Amino acid sequence: MATRYLAREDSSVLALFGAGVQAYTQFEAVCAERPIKKVYLFGSSKTSESVQRFIDYYKTKSDVEIIAAENLEVLSSVDIICTINIFYLMLQDY
What we know:
Elements: H1 2-6, E1 13-17, H2 21-33, E2 38-42, H3 48-59, E3 65-68, E4 80-83, H4 87-90
Parallel strand pairs: 1-2, 1-4, 2-3
């Protein structure tokens, strides 16, 4: 609902904080509302396997380019930021 009412209609780049179970539905919900073309996926050092699993899962199911984010600098180029986790705890890894 937040994407529908708060994001510009032409938003195409998403930053997704968290790569667990809820990330899948959040990703799909944002993509249902906006024409997402690229996602920067943030995970903590403890969830690097989850990040890769997420990327692998959508590799054949979506045309969206999903990139494992390596630093916070990419945030200046995103249109939507979606936090799924207690992301401030994840920031220590970036």
